[in-house]
Amino acid sequence: MSGPDGIVRIFDTTMRDGEQASRINLNTGEKIQIARQLERLGVDIIEAGFPAASPGDYDAVLNVAREVETPVVAGLARTREHDITVAGDALKGAAHPRIHVFIATSPIHMEYKLKLTPAEVLREVERGVSLAKGIVDDVEFSAEDASRSDIDFLTEVFTCAIDRGATTLNIPDTVGYAMPAEFEEFCRTIINRVGRDGVVWSVHCHNDLGLGVANSLAAVRGGARQVECTINGLGERAGNASMEEIVMSLRTRADHFGADTRIDTTKFYGTSKLVSLLTGVSVQPNKAIVGINAFSHEAGIHQHGMLCNKATYEIMTPESVGAPGTDLHLGKHSGRHAFNERVEKLGYQLTDEQSRAAFELFKDLCDKKKDVSDGDIEALLMDRVVQVTPERRYELKDYTVTVGSGGKPTASITLSHGGAETTEASVGNGPVDAAYKAILKILGFSPELAEFRIRATSELADALGEARVILRYKDIKAQGRGASTDIIEATISAYVEAVNRLYSFAAAKEVVI
Fold first, then answer.
1. Spatial CA neighbour of 122 closest among 159, 88, 87
2. How far apart are CA 503 and CA 389, in angstroms?
3. How far is CA 222 from CA 106, 174, 203, 307, 327, in A?
């Protein structure tokens, strides 16, 4: 096992496996923002995507690889030559590139999905790992659905992967089937059978039975020294093992595990909020470590205990994970330094140009409302600074909405496109419905409104309204966000942004709109 025995490497797959969760679609600019924060967090490996899966994934891996300096950047690939070649090409700008090769090894996957015999799977492993090793030095091999695989065959597969140059071997519990005690012994047995110095053993656990974190920690006890996980536990189906829960368990119970990570845990809260906003997936209030109730105490007995000694009911402090403590009020008299510090605390890494633009927008907002909350700042950053659409075909120029008790809501919308402005009007069941119908008249095609959400950015009466829209056209889905003190403007902006991204995604997939 290479490296200090007590150090567990954190392999983040938020942008690859996490993005596979239903209704999540991150663009390159959003992935770069997450990657910057993961680097600040101290993540060892960032899996930026599956380059061969789509042009968007390829572009994201290519740009993330160029953006970060310290972490290893990994690209996922099947054992196919095309996948591995494309992954290598996407990673060519990385300071520390890794190709992550995988193939399924369980009987059910080999028979029904791959339609390959065990001998054929072994040949695929030999060929795929060899090809990847010819492109980069750092090759990871994963045996998909390992926890339901025959342990003798798995030993053969991992031995073959090592012989062909893999230096990290991953034992996934792909469908969340394992139980902690058996998974610990399963991992220990494989590691002891295969042996070999200089190899890092990894695990990748899903949460179908709610045991993703428990199984990951059990694997550490069994000898694993890399854990693959995601921020907020995002991922397909019930999600992946949650990074913040794994790291804080190792740190809080060092007496039990005898292992730790290089993670700066004070960045967890901001990172969690950033990922939640970018993906549109809310963090449940009682989520361990980063939920808003994680450090809340309402019961009288609990409150009394906390007043006497915080350790009575808190096994870690809010400060240790970056959860809010004291509140520094930001307003029209706040300076750039205080603003930038708050932005960083919220988990955003802005360029100098973005920082200047954000501060000017913040000052404009201060003129419109007295109290500016963290939620307002985040909405402003998401709507006007961070969210990047490569080509903005349409810009909202003007809108008028009329609502009254005596008639139907009416909306007039003006959009600019290619230097020309077009205005259309429509009536609807409400002001938002009327506005969206007017926009559809301008577009000339009718994407389906798959999801619509709106929320206030704080509990204050003058909070910004933040809207989120998902549009679907054929097999393409695109997300748009908008934020404004005017809730109608926020909903219209979100729709226009989703339209722009729909065009961008369609162009990447060569779909005609």
1. 159
2. 10
3. 21, 18, 11, 40, 43
- Which tokens hold the place of 342? 């708050």
DSSP-assigned states of every residue in 54-83: -HHHHHHHHHHHHH-SSSEEEEEEESSHHH
What residues of the chain score a pLDDT lower than 50?
1-4, 298, 326-328
One-letter amino acid of 407? G
Q: Which residue type, as a one-letter code, is found at position 177?
A: Y
The structure tokens 């030095």 sit at 137
Choose which CATH entry (3.40.630.10, 2.60.40.1930, 3.40.50.300, 3.30.160.270) describes domain 395-508.
3.30.160.270
pLDDT digits (tens, 9 = 90+) for 158-170: 999 999 999 999 9
Cross-strand pairs, 95? none
Domains of the chain, by residue range, sit at 9-279, 291-325, 336-386, 395-508
- Separation between Cα atoms, residue 507 and residue 389, nearest integer Å: 12
DSSP E strands in 266-360: the ranges are none
Task: DSSP letter for 282, please.
Answer: P
pLDDT at 22: 74
Q: Exposed e or buried b for every residue in 278-314, given b needs 16+ CB within 10 A?
A: bbbbebeeebebbbeebbebeeeeeeebeeeeeeeeb
Q: Determine which helix (DSSP H) or strand (DSSP E) holds 12, and give its type and residue range.
A: strand 9-12
Q: Does domain 9-279 sit in CATH 3.20.20.70?
A: yes
Q: What is the pLDDT of residue 390?
A: 55
Question: What is the number of residues in the chain?
Answer: 513
The letter for the amino acid at 453 is: R
- What would the pLDDT profile of 80-113 be if each residue is shown by its tens digit? 999 999 999 999 999 999 999 999 999 999 999 9
Q: Which amino acid is at 104?
A: A
Sort strands 465-473 and 476-484 into parallel, antiparallel or unpaired: antiparallel
Alpha helix ranges (H) inside 134-267: 151-163, 180-194, 212-221, 243-252, 254-257
pLDDT in the model for residue 512: 84
The confidence score (pLDDT) of residue 3 equals: 39
Ramachandran quadrant class, 264 (left: phi over 0; alpha: psi -120 to 50; beta: rest): beta
Q: What is the pLDDT of residue 413?
A: 97
DSSP codes, 393-421: --EEEEEEEEEETTEEEEEEEEEEETTEE
Q: Let me know if 442 is exposed, middle or buried by CB neighbors in 10 A (0-12, 13-18, 19+).
A: middle
Report the chain's C-alpha Rg in angstroms.
25
Q: Report yes or no: 65 and 91 within 8 Å, Cβ to Cβ.
A: yes
| 3-class DSSP assignment, residue 230 | strand
